[in-house]
Amino acid sequence: MAQLITSDDMWGELVFTVFAATAKFQRQQIVKGTREGLDAARGRVGGRPRALNAEQIADAAMLLRAGQTQAAVAGKLGVSRWTLRRSLETDSDGAAAAG
């Protein structure tokens, strides 16, 4: 094993050819797997599911306009005040961008 592999003779050339073919095959397998993964994920939205749906956000906004506190509304929906606030801000940004 102390000998270096060189391409000076036919055996060294054979070893290099086998290594090159193996590397090419591995690269093709990686590309194929990546493409299959991207195709499988196409159309899916990544990340965590939203804590509140659009209907819950609309109900929360109505309750807040009616004078209820953020803490009370968040408690009814089973989320934290920060989650409620973030959902309301995101929804109003989306509505403003869509409108």
Structural notes for this entry:
The chain is mostly helical and 99 residues long. It folds into 2 domains: 9-39; 54-98. The chain has 4 helices and no strands. It has helices spanning 10-41, 54-65, 70-77, 81-98. The longest helix has 32 residues, at 10-41. The N and C termini lie far apart (72 Å). The model is unreliable at 94-99 (pLDDT under 50). It holds the Pfam family HTH_7. InterPro entries: Homeodomain-like_sf, Resolv_N, Resolvase_HTH_dom. GO terms for molecular function: DNA binding; DNA strand exchange activity. Residues 1-45 form the Resolvase/invertase-type recombinase catalytic domain. This is Helix-turn-helix domain-containing protein.
Unreliable segments of 5+ consecutive residues: 94-99
Radius of gyration: 29 Å
Q: Kindly report how far apart the N and C termini lie.
A: 72 Å
Number of strands: 0
State mean pLDDT (0 to 100 scale). 87
Biggest sheet details: none
How many separate structural domains?
A: 2
Order of helices and strands: HHHH
The tally of helices reads 4
Residue share in helix: over 70%
Shape: rod-shaped
Broad structural category = mainly alpha
Quaternary state reads single chain
Strand content: under 5%
In short:
This protein has helices at 10-41, 54-65, 70-77, 81-98. The chain is mainly alpha-helical.
